[in-house]
Specification:
With 411 residues, the chain is an alpha+beta fold. It contains 10 helices and 26 strands. Strands 4-3-8-11-12-1-13 form a 7-stranded mixed β-sheet. It has a 6-stranded antiparallel β-sheet with strand order 7-6-5-2-9-10, with no helix packed on it. A 3-stranded antiparallel β-sheet has the order 15-14-26.
Length: 411
């Protein structure tokens, strides 16, 4: 290994050490070390702008190919199998690049957003993939508030609960997108991750206070899910998903408390949506083919829509759409996408009741009244906030929403 390569290795180790949160002594099930996580920030990007708040190193093939000063911007594009870089002293073509800050508390910026750790850039089929590689605990600091928002002092246990659930999710899903070169996406398709800009003092404390803690079942990290608002009860996987298998800890959990519900503080605890007949028919003629694979001509006349079956949590698991020639069944996992709102959004949840008005046998107005927001499986985030305000600690919160699990320190 060259002297430059040794220096790069040393710098990388230093960056990870600086960004890692302090680790308390393990109490239950220690493993060797905190894992790193690779977060896919961009896939198929046509152009990426990268700069650093301080001096930074640009690494290719294990060698430092350039050092750039604070504020120097690099523009990266793809040309065939190469990353093409435009910028002072760095212009050239590389198979893969890594950029890392060489200064403490100075971060690499991707499209103006600061990130800890190392930024990797490499070509993909459509453009460039940008990956942020950093220690898991540092990653979580950019997840907790991105998922939960800024919370008050009496809601700290909810941030800690989110840190535990997010850590468990990350460990369970390491390597999920290995073929693409990263573990998790930076969006709510996995977990919202905002980098340094999403961090807060309270969020960092929540990560630090729960460092290494994961939820387990029979000695293994569980499959965690979370959503904004359950509306009264969480759901079973089959009510919300096609491919998530049932697990004993993924079952309906009541959010009821004396005099109400823990998640009733959510602005989306109850809601309603209305469609006039023409708007409803226009939407269904587009969504029924795209979601269900049924020809649009089938939706000739919308004569009715009714809830045919409900699941254990009370959510709609099958809705029947009546058209001239019969009924079209819509199962729960498809319902939110099929019944798109007039504003073009998916339906808030499947915990609904439907009210239909007709003229001459055709639906003239549909009103859906709903409860909660999101798929409904696992931890209710607003419920966690309500429980924290009521004095529950983070362990109580997470083991309530995932019954039968244990909280263990994994490293």
């Amino acid at each position: 290994m060259s002297i430059r390569a040794l220096r790069v290795t040393s710098v990388l180790a230093g960056v990870f050490a600086l960004s890692a949160c302090p680790r308390p002594e393990p109490t239950t099930r220690p493993t060797a070390r905190q894992p790193d996580v690779r977060v896919g920030l961009e896939v198929g990007a046509e152009r990426i702008r990268i700069e650093s708040q301080g001096p930074a190193a640009v690494v290719a093939g294990g060698e430092v190919v350039a050092r750039v000063a604070a504020g120097v911007a690099l523009t990266l594009t793809r040309d065939g199998p190469d990353v093409v870089v435009a910028g002072d002293r760095v212009a050239g073509r590389y198979g893969r690049l890594s950029i890392l800050s060489l200064a403490d508390a100075r971060f690499v910026l991707v499209s103006g957003k600061p990130f800890r750790g190392v930024i990797d850039v490499y070509p993909d089929d459509r453009g460039l993939t940008v990956v942020n590689q950093l220690p898991l605990e540092s990653y979580l600091a950019g997840v907790v508030n991105a998922e939960m928002g800024r919370r008050g002092a009496d809601e700290q246990a909810a941030l800690e609960a989110q840190a535990i659930v997010a850590r468990t999710y990350a460990i369970k899903n390491l390597g999920k997108f290995g073929a693409q070169g990263f573990d998790l996406r930076a969006t709510v398709a996995d977990q919202a991750y905002g980098g340094v800009a999403a961090e807060s003092d309270a969020g960092q404390v929540a990560v630090r206070e729960t460092a290494g803690m994961v939820l387990t079942h029979r000695g293994e990290p569980i499959a965690t899910f979370f959503h904004s608002t359950c509306g009264g009860s969480t759901a079973t996987p089959d009510e919300a998903f096609r491919t998530v298998r049932a697990m004993p800890y993924l079952r309906p959990v009541s959010d009821r408390r004396r005099g109400g519900y823990y998640c009733e503080i959510s602005p989306r605890f109850r809601w309603s949506v209305e469609w006039d007949g023409a708007t409803l028919a226009r939407i269904l003629r587009r969504t029924v083919p795209s979601v269900l694979g049924i020809d649009a001509s089938t939706v000739d006349e919308v004569r009715g829509i009714r809830i045919h079956r409900t699941g254990r949590s009370g959510r709609a698991t099958e809705v029947r759409l009546t058209v001239r020639d019969g009924e079209i069944p819509i199962i729960g996992p498809d319902l939110r996408a099929v019944l798109e709102t007039p504003e073009g959004r998916i339906l808030g949840s499947t915990s609904i009741v439907a009210e239909v008005e007709r003229e001459a046998g055709i639906v003239s107005r549909l009103t859906v009244r709903g409860g909660g927001w999101g798929h409904g499986v696992g931890m209710c985030q607003w419920g966690a906030v309500g429980r924290a305000r009521a004095g529950q600690d983070s362990e109580t919160i997470v083991t309530t929403y995932f019954p039968g699990t244990r909280l263990e320190r994994w490293y």
